[in-house]
Specification:
The chain is built from 14 helices and 19 strands. By secondary structure, it is α/β, with parallel strands linked by helices. It has two domains: about 375 residues, TIM Barrel, CATH 3.20.20; about 70 residues, Golgi alpha-mannosidase II (Immunoglobulin-like), CATH 2.60.40.1180. The chain has a seven-stranded parallel beta sheet.
Length: about 575
């Protein structure tokens, strides 16, 4: 497929709002493409395949962490924010990749982890050495209770207490995740200044923005109050282990989104405005009804967020509709990216449409992509979604995720979403590597390989390319407001998108049966890739997992406004 002709990134004031309604492609570097045969994906491998990403027509590329790391949590435990880990390559590899992304008209976002570091970071090594060193207050330290127990009942979402004893200080340190990931004290202005300086460094290297990891953990209750237990309503089935994880037995009022978060976000936004970078926050492992406005107050906090509400949503049409309606009500003027899967979750086609993936694998993948690109907000596509990859079943012997090992067999962890991309169906290691991959490549992924889908006009890959190209000419889908509704007599979800006098109505049949949606005569189907394009006398007939977009007779699209203030 011939790549679209795109110009280099511009820097006009209006161009600073490119992120509104943008499509971002997430690269999990370790599993994208290995260039040197060590079995681990690297930056040079991403560069080798950058034209694949550009061919989709996305607006930006987000890279998972490639900073220096002991790899206890595969890059999310950082020991130096400014160095490239040898497993990922070199700084020269990064700079070449940066240039290639920009030359193809895309932006480059980095994953940034401000809430914790590795326990091997020099900051923590100094902080843990004594109570009176210059960095003694750079992490979250607390005294033991009179009985020697941790200071409160906070739990790690990875299992067990969130506190670990440090004998050199005779104190506990706090870690919301792994023991090897001590929490930074962002209430300390000096620490906050240094974290912002780390982001400033990468902006000076030409980065266009950041995906901010786990923004619900930016702050913590300075009185160290206990979280209240979950009552008769039962455990909260959440990100990571579900009801078998003790973490789900608490309401996380004091260790998530605690007092002080607003001030930290304000400092981040000040930096972003001064540097021209954008900030997109991840909200995860929470059981409270956090909303986008908590983190994206107009012009004062993050530009946008994404959460796990749709990732965790079950597939029945009532639940999905209720979740979309709730999101619509809470969103207001905030900006939320549509995310159905990422490197921490079950792949969407096996989650949201598990009832259909065996009989309608291609159509199930297309339906989800259609929804992601037509619902309000931007869209973050995780690598492999363009191929419709199903979630594989891994044996315990194949698993490397420490989270999965802690909760096996009730939780199979994150490895299923992290298996290497199958580039060539018949090549050794599916064209990912010349060596043994760090994670096994599932046999069931080989029929979905990139080279095979390139040759199939009706493949998920080619469908997505066409859909993104079509969406580019629909300002209502990028900028418009939204209204969710459901046709009560059939498993159909519809949502209206309005912008600058134009109105579109997206329709999705979330079932494996035929469905019919009555329509007034003034509604007519648009020619949407893969969608129903012809109406019957009284309405629209949708096949299994079918979809369409309808518009009013005589209505045309409109161009986006010259400037949108946020």
């Amino acid at each position: 497929m011939k790549l679209q002709e795109v110009s280099a990134v511009e820097s006009s004031d209006d161009d600073r709002h490119w992120w509104r309604g943008a499509i971002i492609y997430e690269v999990y570097v370790r599993s994208f493409r290995d260039s040197n045969g060590d079995g681990i994906g690297d930056l040079a491998g991403v560069l080798e395949k950058i034209d694949h990403i550009a061919s989709l027509g996305v607006d930006a590329v987000w890279l998972s962490p490639f900073y220096k790391s002991p790899q206890k949590d595969y890059g999310y435990d950082i020991s130096d924010f400014r160095l490239v880990d040898p497993s990922a390559g070199t700084m020269e590899d990064f700079l070449r990749l940066r240039d290639a992304v920009h030359e193809r008209g895309m932006r480059l976002l980095l994953d940034f982890v401000p809430c914790h570091t590795s326990d091997q970071h020099p900051w923590f090594e100094e902080s843990r050495s004594s109570r009176d060193n210059p960095k003694a207050d750079w992490y979250v330290w607390a005294d033991q209770k009179a009985d020697g127990c941790p200071p409160n009942n906070w739990l790690s979402s990875f299992g067990g207490t969130a506190w670990t004893w440090e004998p050199r200080r005779s104190q506990y340190y706090y870690h919301p995740f792994l023991t090897e990931q001590p929490a930074l004290n962002l209430h300390n202005e000096e620490v906050l200044d240094h974290i912002i300086q780390e982001m400033e460094y990468w902006c000076s290297q030409g980065v266009d923005g950041f995906r901010i990891d786990a923004v619900q953990c930016l702050s913590w209750d300075r009185d160290l109050r206990d979280n209240p237990p979950v009552g008769r309503e039962g455990t909260h089935v959440m990100f990571g282990g579900g009801p078998t994880n003790p973490f789900a037995r608490q309401h996380h009022l004091f260790d998530r989104n605690a007092e002080g978060t607003e001030e930290i976000l304000g400092r981040f936004r000040q930096f972003a405005d001064e540097s021209g970078c954008i900030l997109i926050g991840e909200l995860a492992d929470i059981d409270t009804p956090l909303t986008a406005p908590d983190f994206t107050a107009r012009g004062r906090r993050l530009h946008a967020v994404y959460d796990f509400n749709l990732i965790n949503c079950r597939s029945d049409v009532e639940t999905l509709t209720d979740q979309l309606r709730r999101r619509e009500e809470l969103m207001g003027s905030s900006w939320v990216y549509n995310v159905f899967t990422n490197h921490d979750s079950t792949r969407a086609v096996s989650n949201l449409t598990h009832f259909a993936v065996d009989d309608y694998p291609l159509q199930a993948a297309k339906l989800l992509l259609f929804m992601q690109l037509t619902l309000k907000g931007g869209c973050i596509l995780y690598q492999g979604e363009e191929l419709g990859l199903p979630h594989p079943e891994l044996e315990y012997e194949d698993i490397v995720d420490p989270w999965a090992k802690a909760f096996w067999p009730t939780f199979d962890g994150r490895d299923g979403a992290r298996t290497p991309i199958p580039w060539e169906g018949d090549a050794p290691q599916a064209g990912f590597s010349d060596g043994k991959p760090w994670l096994k490549i599932p046999e069931e992924h080989l029929p979905f390989a990139v080279d095979r889908q390139e040759e199939e006009p009706d493949s998920v890959l080619n469908f997505l390319r066409q859909l993104i190209a079509w969406r580019r000419d629909q300002p209502a889908l990028r900028f418009g407001d939204e209204q969710i509704s459901r046709w009560e007599r059939a498993p159909i979800i519809t949502w209206r998108r309005r912008h600058a006098g134009s109105e579109l109505r997206a329709v999705a049949n979330f079932a494996t049966d035929q469905a019919f949606l009555p329509l007034e005569q003034h509604w007519r189907p648009m020619r949407v890739p893969g969608g129903v394009s012809r109406r019957q006398e009284h309405g629209l007939s949708l096949g299994p997992l079918g979809f369409a977009v309808v518009t009013r007779n005589g209505q045309t699209g409109s161009k986006p406004p010259a400037s949108t203030k946020t």
